[in-house]
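Risk register update: the risk of archive-format incompatibility is retired. Evidence:
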Amino acid sequence: MSKKYYFIGIKGTGMGPLAQILHDQGNEVLGSDIDTYTYTQAPLEAAGIKILPFDARNVDANQDAIFVKGNAFNNDQIEVARALEIGVTMISYPEAVQEQISQTTSIAIAGAHGKTSTTGLLAHVLKNIAPTSYLIGDGTGRGVPNSQFFVVEADEYRRHFKDYAPDYAILTNIDFDHPDYYTGIEDVTSAFADFVNNVKKAIFAWGDDEHLRSLKPSADVYYYGVNPDRDDFVATNIHKSTQGSHFNVVFRGKDLGEFAVPLFGQHGILNALAVIAVSYMEEVDLDLIRQYLLTYQGVKRRFSEKQIADITVIDDYAHHPTEITATLDAARQKYPNKKIIAIFQPHTFSRVIAYKDEFASSLEAADQVYLANIFGSAREQAGTITSKDLGSEISKFGGIIEENDMSLLMPYENAVMVFMGAGDIEKYEFAYEKLLGQLRTDLT
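Archived output:
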């Protein structure tokens, strides 16, 4: 029986895909959000899902709906407050996700880094093999009636994932990535400990992460990695090229054969290994896994590429030192003979303060580094550190870019320009691409 859902904050990176899933399953779905265009709204509009501006009257007009409250909002938000006042049915985003998790064989992917890419890869493989619904943190969601699998990205921020109870979990790593909420790595680890205690069947964890190894869940744990002495699923005979990576997989001494992925960097191999591991334990045909790993095209804002004349522009969500290292490693693998230019927008003052030295160190992997000014957040509008302070720690620092002045980037030819950040780095990227396109057109 179909239901009606109203999403408060429907353009959120989790809310949008969840709305798509419920719509695909035959429910009536609408919602509200800010007027500013976001990349997550295009799929909603394509599905014909109505997006309204925030207004308390929306609640009165849709009292027959189940209201889903986005994680970003407190009880004083205009529509949330009205919903509470008149007593309509309202659930949280995690509660709505758990409803999906409970209906099928569910696989949740959690970790400080790599969860979106791993979720996207697993969803791509399984949807081509069996009926699969999925919710990815790049704003992509798909619902299939009577799904065999549900693949979901599980966000650790503010412990949003604490009440999820999936059949399986993939854990990519544990890191201190939200200093505005967590007090330190021990606090983050405790959040993951709470989450894994709800996993029903098995957990697949990256074997090199000692924080993951410290977890003691009741479910079976399989470690994946490159260490045959410590890991259960092991990638061996690794070969990296400008076309991607291929490797053999061994599970506790049993050779599962060779696999290849059009992915770059060590993290791409590890993500694929996690996907192979959980699929294998669900007895998915290995030849089908091999086939569909090869056709993966990636997710939004994760090493997304475009070519403008002789310049390769890469767009990536990397906003933590570990992620920057992984992204630049991937760029080096794919473009070993080109200059790698990093253009990074730090995201939140507290993160830059907590990781100033690590940011500087990770960015040194580029041939030259440019910074945009720090992008704050709703909770952090200002701080005591600047991008210039960070730049002073980087030996390859070339200066601060401005949206209306891309002159620092224009001299490069036949280079790879890697734009990274979780704020509004795309506006700098677009300004550069527009100017570059005009310049290269004028020269031809």
